Amino acid sequence: GESVGLHLPTLSVQEGDNSIINCAYSNSASDYFIWYKQESGKGPQFIIDIRSNMDKRQGQRVTVLLNKTVKHLSLQIAATQPGDSAVYFCAATYNFNKFYFGSGTKLNVKP
Amino acid sequence: DAGITQSPRHKVTETGTPVTLRCHQTENHRYMYWYRQDPGHGLRLIHYSYGVKDTDKGEVSDGYSVSRSKTEDFLLTLESATSSQTSVYFCAISDSTGTTYEQYFGPGTRLTVT
Question: What tens digit of pLDDT does each residue of B12-41 get?
């Protein structure tokens, strides 16, 4: 199986600052990872993904970093905005059928 | 938004009663998933389907069964609901394109077992 954990249950940042949300996984065979954003009362929404043959991937205002040596990945959000306030989950898989999710980090953006 | 609906959206039921939750998709995606979400546990996979009549267990499948008789519908059944099954249930769909395995989630069903 796989065990995925997030380092902080809550993260508070000032509007305009950069945010970094961390995630650790246990199975070295995991080779595909996704970050999701979940707003209150809604289902998770895809943000960005990364395969194990990459160590960095960038999207619009977001960057995911993958360190396979220590089985760690992070989500960086640039110039954090109030609309970024949500719970963020990472998910990992080694067979593309079953995904294992972390417990989530709640991001609070202070105006 | 991906065409995923869940019904009912809210349900309160008594311990010992059977409950069926429905997930319906209009995307013709091959894979369908049922997750439960509880505080401190994130999302945990209950069952998933990789085609009509093809299903497999997830990490928390005890007490749950599923059925998929057609591509668009995936049913989750609690044969005899218990208070520990009080949770928010999410359905998800995906269809590998070879480059991404993104899962699209439904709006969730809040189930309370009293």
Answer: 999 999 999 999 999 999 999 999 999 877
